[in-house]
Input
Amino acid sequence: MSSEETKTDVILIGAGIMSATLGTLLKELVPEWKIKVFEKLSNAGEESSNEWNNAGTGHAALCELNYTNEQTDGSIDISKAVKINEQFQVSMQFWSYLVNSKLIHNPQNFIRRFPHMSMVRGEENVTFLKKRYETMSNNPLFKGMEFSDDREKLVEWIPLIMQDRPLNEAIAATKSDSGTDVNFGALTRMLFDHLKNTNVDIKYKHSVENMERHNDGSWELKVKNLDSGSVERHSAAFVFIGGGGGSLHLLQKSGIPEGKQIGGFPVSGIFMSCNNPEVIAQHHAKVYGKAKKGAPPMSVPHLDTRYIDNKQSLLFGPFAGFSPNFLKNGSMFDLVTSVTPNNVFTMLAAGAKEMSLTKYLIQQVMLSKEQRMEELREFIPGAKSEDWDLVTAGQRVQVIKDTEAGGKGTLQFGTEVVTSDDGSLAALLGASPGASTAAHVMLEVIQKCFPQYMKEWEPKIKEMIPSYGESLMENPELLDDIHTHTSQTLGLSERELAFS
Ligand SMILES: Cc1cc2nc3c(=O)[nH]c(=O)nc-3n(C[C@H](O)[C@H](O)[C@H](O)COP(=O)(O)OP(=O)(O)OC[C@H]3O[C@@H](n4cnc5c(N)ncnc54)[C@H](O)[C@@H]3O)c2cc1C
Output
């Protein structure tokens, strides 16, 4: 066993979309900073960011019914949808800047336009969807959204879903043509290629095993070279824990008080993938339905056209599942070892509170293929079992923490940025809305950890993200400019219609 020691400005742990985005932002803001990346697998974007491990939806709240709530007075609260749409616009502007500046190329290899649709059945749901559409279509962010409960129109929009459907069934949908399918795996790999070209030192098959803070505030990481078995020591002034499901254990090892009472609960995802080209060719949209009662928000069923490796495919799901692993390539002891004396009461409280989730997950795990087909048939009544295969997607680790609103052991469904008080360490936990909002979330990391540089960096941030610091909802002219510009740069203006 040999030992190596180095010092650098920034260490990014994990080569997923989050580290890729933060590294790229920092390289634009301070090109002279030295950055190192440690990734335990042999390539970038192999865990949740991989194209087969997530649904590839550019979450802009154009179709996800769980981002809007019906209030007791019957009105629809769209504040969450507004927030997520604004965050997605930040990613779109950043990707557009990268393409324009020739830092990444061929945007069609990571982003395509496909209509985003919400689809509901039953009178009550149709009334809800219509009301939701009326509220949303008045907002500039959702301009262009269409609603229909007319069968002929629906046959035109979603022929596969309308085939063999009872004539007396109440059904309605909304459609936004500006939706996207994003290959986050391809994007992650492109960003890491770019980082390599800017002399970022990327070490694959290097697992970060431990970390401790030096007296001067910098961090020393113990890193295992998985090829040679040697242990290396690497120090940095700033560390970002972008380990996806692996982040919680690393945060706990850092020992910062901000991470002590946090726990995690893994939820795995399973999709059904269509193997019949004739069926695949009949659907050209991402169609989101309504979650079943008691189902967690990440298991909202959707039927998605995907575009991966220049090939169109069709996926349905996700079905939730339970595996104690925190990463797809993780260990079955991940959940057990994440329970520490600091978070044990938070975890126990969550266990008692979330019995219905546990019951739901057990039911989901027990589903046979034919039972999963029955759920698919709510979308495609004539779906045949032989046309569909099961594929295992990525792991999500939902954050559990004590909150004022929810009390002890509250399960969180969003993303959490945890930072040390001196800003020398940041960790990203949770996975929703996920990769779509990477640029917004990594800007949040920068704001929290480098407040002393924000004034100096602001002009460059505005060059990359013209809407930075502004509300697009309140500035429709800027929104229009941004839409036109990002559509042109990312090649989304006309090409998408060729697929619909
Ligand atoms: C089923 C499913 C569907 C989803 N659908 C969508 C969607 O439609 N749209 C969307 O925007 N988001 C979606 N997401 C969420 C999205 O995939 C994630 O938010 C995003 O990929 C997380 O990126 P990351 O960089 O944080 O983590 P990851 O991509 O998981 O990367 C973390 C990396 O860290 C490495 N690592 C971990 N521990 C260590 C260590 N100790 N040392 C070195 N390396 C380490 C891992 O090997 C991995 O490569 C989905 C997720 C799932 C699971």
